[in-house]
Amino acid sequence: MSRETTNRIHRTGRRMISGRLSRELLGLSFPVFLQSLCYTLLGLIDRVMVGQLGEDVISGVGVGNQVNFLLMMVGGSAAAGTSILTAQYRGAKNLGGVARLTGTSLWMAALVSSALAGAIVFLARPICLQLADSEQIAEVGASYLSIVTLTLPMILLMFVITGIMKALGDTRTPMYTTVVAICLNTLGNWLLIFGVGPFPELGYVGAAWSTFFSHTVAFGLTVAFFMRKPYSGYRFALTHLKEVSLRTATSVMKLAMPIAGDMAVWQFAMLAYIKVVSRIGPQALAAYFIYMAVRSIGFIPMSALSQGVSVIVGREIGAVRPKRFQAAVGRAVNLALAISALMAILFILIAKPYVGIYDVDPEVSRMAIWLTMLFGAIIPFEGLIIIFSSTLRAGGDALRVSVISFSSFWLVGVPLAWFFGVFLHGGMLGAFIGIGLESVAKACLFVWRYRGGKWVRNLTD
């Protein structure tokens, strides 16, 4: 066989692999995209509806949501570690490992989430006051946070279960439960915020209780589906709750601790950004939260792709097939960059009509519009960050991800946001420049780490 024929066969094989992986990547990612869109809309609906109640309420609910999100991300690190290990166990065809992992991770999530929820009940007000520098905003934030934090144990257990589902190839079921949650939350907001019919008019407190009820129903549905459906040969049984393994817990923690550190660094940086913006002024803070509510939509397609590619990468590392996960990562990056260009155009088009929904001061509206439009400039870098950080975690390199995140946030993002926004009196635009430069630096570091190739580890050995 000639060299030209051999090369042609190799090229054809690579195209076939890439074609199958592209279809699988999209098949895994699309339901995750819909789920993430619904979950983001759930939070956005809260903000838009309470946005009719004034700027202090917008800021207070924003602060409360930011703290709650920090708790979910840090506590959900065990779920992320579980998902990575499940994907590799799937590739190695080790269903016994999946059973031990499920029981161990559920108990870990239950204990961590209960401790976090209990602590925040007592610390909600001082935390919100420290962040907002305003008694009125802190009072709103603490009241909202004290209620939504009660859902934390259910949410973290749901994270573990849906992480296992996705790693085993079922991305549709989590999507269905999220759709139910957003429908219930929208209805609950309408009834309880504005006091429709026999329901009391509770304002932003009504939004918090609506979120609580919708998450409760979504959790019940997730558990019901998990107990009834088989996943890639694995089926959950209550007896798996007895299969708690110290060795498995250690493996999860080795992955979870760096991920928790990364999430904590990211969320504490977000809180630091809030602190910087609050130093600029209350109008800047309100504009920032309006922008942040819609900004999360820009991450949805890339986050969905990252979850799809992490499932494939983890599975192919477990099965020792490096060319397949490399092809999947390449396709995910190309898709992420193409989507970012479309999202940049979308943000420019929707900025004015979106901000116009809020009943706020004209200066707040002006700042929020510019922030929403400028986000298109950094979204390609955010796409690279999401894809490559998820890939590195799937290969067991979560510690390096955490180090890169820590360095970029605290050595680039937060100092530059303060320097340009507060010290040089650049206002909200100056702070945004500092935040954008942090995204550029982080994206470059993640690409460099991936290309080095030292991040791949088979965690099932």
Quick description:
Helices cover 84% and strands 0% of the residues.
Question: Could you explain how this protein is built, in words?
Answer:
With 461 residues, the chain is mostly helical. Helix content is 84%, strand content 0%. The protein contains 15 helices and no strands. Helix 2 packs antiparallel against helix 9 and helix 13 runs antiparallel to helix 14. It is globular and about 60 Å long. About 3% of the residues have low confidence.
Strand residues, percent: under 5%
Structural class: mainly alpha
What coarse outline follows from CA principal-axis ratios? Answer: globular
Question: Termini separation (Å)?
Answer: 38 Å
Mean pLDDT: 80
User: Which regions are unreliable across 5 or more consecutive residues at pLDDT < 50?
Assistant: 5-17
Mind telling me the C-alpha Rg? 22 Å
The SSE order reads HHHHHHHHHHHHHHH
Q: What percent of residues adopt helix (DSSP H or I)?
A: over 70%
The helix count comes to: 15
Oligomer: single chain
Count of β-strands? 0
Secondary-structure map:
Layout (H helix, E strand, L loop, with lengths): L2 H48 L4 H21 L1 H15 L3 H38 L2 H14 L3 H16 L4 H23 L9 H25 L17 H35 L1 H37 L3 H34 L6 H13 L4 H16 L3 H26 L3 H26 L9
Helix pairs in contact: 1-7, 1-8, 1-10, 1-11, 2-4, 2-5, 2-9, 2-10, 3-4, 3-6, 3-9, 3-10, 4-5, 4-6, 4-9, 5-8, 6-8, 7-8, 9-10, 9-14, 9-15, 10-11, 10-12, 10-13, 11-12, 11-13, 13-14, 13-15, 14-15
List keywords for this structure.
mainly alpha; 15 helices; 461 residues
